[in-house]
Amino acid sequence: MGLVNGNMSEQKPRAMIEALQLSKFYGPFAAIQNVSFKIPSGQVAAFLGPNGAGKSTTMKLLTGFLAPTQGTAKIGGHDVLNERMAAAKMIGYLPENGPLYAEMTPQSFLKYMGEARGLNSSKLRDRLDFVVEKCALAGVYGKAIGKLSKGYRQRVGMAQALLHDPPVLILDEPTAGLDPNQIHQVRELIASLKQNKTILLSTHILQEVQAVASHVVFISEGRIVFDGTVDEMNASGDMEQKFRELTSSAA
Asked: Which residue, 16, 89, 157, 175, has fewest beta-carbon neighbours within 10 Å?
C-alpha cells in the first residue's frame, strides 16, 4: 500500500504552475520556444534570465494575457486557454509596470478591482483590511495613485494581486526601479506570503533569487537552460559566474 522502508510514501506536491512546451512566435521570430517547467504547491521559484530573454512573454502566457503559438499553460491544473475563468480565479498577477489609474486612490482602485473579481461586500471589506495592512497602504489610502512614489504604486499593484486571496502569485520584476529600502520591503512581503502561496517571480537580479527563492528556472534566448534549486545554481559558490555561463551557453 505505497510503503517505503515501513512508512507511507510521501505524495508529491501538486503542480500549481505548469508550462508545457510553450512557444510564442511573431512571424519568424521566436520570443520563447519549447519552454517547459513545473512549480509545485508552496514553492517560491525565481524565473531568472537576462533582459529580453523571454521572462515577461512566458508570464503573459501563464496568466492568459497572451495566447501561445504552441504548447499549454496550466494553473492549478486548469488549462489557461480553455479554462480561462477557472485559471484566472487562482492567479494574482503583478505585471511589470502594471497599469494603475493615476486619478484613482488606492481605496477606490482596490474597491473597483474587488467588485470586478466578484467579491461580495462583506468579503471585500475583509480583504481590503487585509491587503491594506499587509502592503502598508494606510498612510496613502486616500491619495491619488498618480502622486504616489514608485514604491507605493508597487505596493498598490501587489495589493490588487492579493485581493481575492489567490493560491498562485505571478510577479513580473516586482522590485524593478525601487530604491534599496523599497526593495527590502517588497522582499519581506514576498517572504511573508510564501507559507500559503505558490509564487513565481521573474527577475534578473541574483540577490533577489538568494533572498526569496528556493528554486530557479533560468531562461536565455527564449529557452530554458537551467531548472533546479538555488543551492544547485550556486554549487560553485559563484552565482554570477553561473549566470554568465548559462547565458553564453544559450547564445
From this structure: 89
Read off the pLDDT of residues 103-133 as tens digits, 9 standing for 90 and up.
999 999 999 999 999 999 999 999 999 999 9
Q: Are 70 and 108 contained in the same domain?
A: no
CATH at residue 53 = 3.40.50.300
Note the pLDDT of residue 157. 92
Q: Quick one: 172 and 202 in the same domain? A: yes
Residue 5 has phi, psi (to 5 degrees) of 55, 40
Amino acid at 177: G
Domain assignment of residue 207, given as a range? 13-90+167-176+195-251
Mean of the per-residue pLDDT values of the chain: 89
pLDDT at 200: 97
- Given a cut of 50, whether residue 8 has pLDDT beyond it is no
Cα 45 to Cα 14, 103, 122, 166, 201, distances in angstroms? 15, 34, 33, 17, 7
Integer distance in angstroms from the first to the last C-alpha of the chain? 48
- Domain assignment present for 185: no
